[in-house]
Amino acid sequence: xxxxxxxxxxxxxxxxxxxxxxxxxxxxxxxxxxxxxxxxxxxxxxxxxxxxxxxxxxxxxxxxxxxxxxxxxxxxxxxxxxxxxxxxxxxxxxxxxxxxxxxxxxxxxxxxxxxxxxxxxxxxxxxxxxxxxxxxxxxxxxxxxxxxxxxxxxxxxxxxxxxxxxxxxxxxxxxxxxxxxxxxxx
Length: 186
Known about the structure:
Elements: E1 9-17, E2 24-33, E3 46-48, E4 57-58, H1 64-80, H2 85-96, H3 101-113, H4 117-130, H5 136-154, H6 156-173
Antiparallel strand pairs: 1-2, 2-3, 2-4
């Protein structure tokens, strides 16, 4: 279940069955900046929806519908705030405090989309320090980041065009080709 319009970011809820019980399930709240090339929806950016101290929900809960709707409403405002690059930047900040190259890559590219060139270059520098280019997937991340860095230094508009191309590619890879993000950047 996702929120429209895309506005450069896929945002929504994902329901996942439990491996422990046919009646139990989990709900993931997630967002995915579309400018990062990907072939699959992943949940790097988000969290599981919890009820009290448990992340597991059960169809046997007597008040399931009301409780689930209440918890989803709490995160709906979070997801709604991700309709602008500034909202996505703010949401990515806690993830970028971790040593995860994906988080730094996302933050760098969202900065670039928002024409925050210095912040994008700083985020790319941090990303490149984290990557181990002997690991194939990290080598790919580093290559993309170096490409965007070069474009930002030469012509920031060219960098944004590249990010738009990757966004279109990701939208098509995810089967969302019939939906187009709002091209307005604020």
